[in-house]
Every structure is written in structure tokens, then in C-alpha cells.
Structure to design on (158 residues):
């Protein structure tokens, strides 16, 4: 996904919203509205901090990533409770949200990115973990799950 595509994230989301309205795709539309609401909430919070430009594309990617994670947690809970139709609905929402995220890195690509970030930052001990994570977040937001990457980085620096 090139920078130009990422820069257009908000435009792509509102385009998808209009199209879902035209096509009367109720489920897709409700998910897109949730995405928009989450972005607006973030814009409002940023305005309160004196940032009038609103959420950057990186921040929008973080919002989308968080939305996917929330739904994955709901799916687990619903499946444990035998509420499969609700789990299915969450899975459908994930598909819509992931349509705006860059491709997720594979396990091998993630390991390579971690190794690269460690060498790029000159990290040598666990004390450098923050720098390594910062480097990864700057380059791969929305493409990897940072909670699982954290343990990978710890392992490498231990």
C-alpha cells in the first residue's frame, strides 16, 4: 500500500459510506458509521488538545486496529457463550474494517521487521525496548499486532 493510498484513508471511508447508502447495504453501513464516529471522537479529543488538523492517517489506522481487536475479543466471548450469530456479526464487521487496513504482516515478515528495527536503533538490551517499539510503530502501524510484537522484541533483547 503506497503512501498516496494511505493518505486517502478518510476519503476512502466516506466514499465507502456513500456507496453503502446507495446500495442499501445495512450491515456494512452501520460498521462504516461506527468507524466514522470513532474518527470524529478522536478529532474532537485532538481539538481539545489544540490540534485542529484532526486525526492523522496513522492515528486513523490505530483506531481501526483497536476496533478490530475489540471485535476479536467480543467474538471469543460470544463463542464461549454459544452466541454464534453474534460472533458472526462481529466477524462481518472485522471484514469491513480490515478493508481499510494495510495487509497484515506474516509471522516471518514481523520477525524480519523486529530484527531490522533492533539493528536500526542499535538496541542491545531490554532498556532499548521503547526505541525499538517506537521504530516499529512508526513504520508498521496497522500492519502488526503490537502486543504480540512486544514479547517478540523482549525475547530478542533479553
Amino acid at each position: 500500500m503506497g503512501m498516496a493510498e494511505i493518505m486517502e484513508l478518510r476519503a476512502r471511508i466516506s466514499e465507502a459510506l456513500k456507496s453503502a447508502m446507495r446500495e442499501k447495504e445495512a450491515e456494512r453501513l452501520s460498521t462504516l458509521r461506527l468507524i466514522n464516529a470513532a474518527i470524529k471522537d478522536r478529532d474532537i479529543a485532538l481539538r481539545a488538545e489544540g490540534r485542529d488538523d484532526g486525526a492523522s492517517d496513522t492515528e486513523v489506522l490505530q483506531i481501526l486496529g483497536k476496533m478490530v481487536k475489540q471485535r476479536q475479543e467480543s467474538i471469543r466471548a460470544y463463542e464461549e457463550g454459544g452466541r454464534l450469530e453474534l460472533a458472526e456479526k462481529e466477524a462481518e464487521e472485522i471484514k469491513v474494517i480490515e478493508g481499510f487496513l494495510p495487509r497484515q504482516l506474516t509471522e516471518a515478515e514481523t520477525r524480519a521487521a523486529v530484527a531490522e528495527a533492533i539493528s536500526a536503533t542499535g538496541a542491545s538490551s531490554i532498556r532499548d525496548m521503547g526505541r525499538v517499539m517506537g521504530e516499529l510503530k512508526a513504520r508498521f502501524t496497522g500492519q502488526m499486532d503490537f502486543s504480540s510484537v512486544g514479547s517478540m522484541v523482549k525475547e530478542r533483547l533479553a
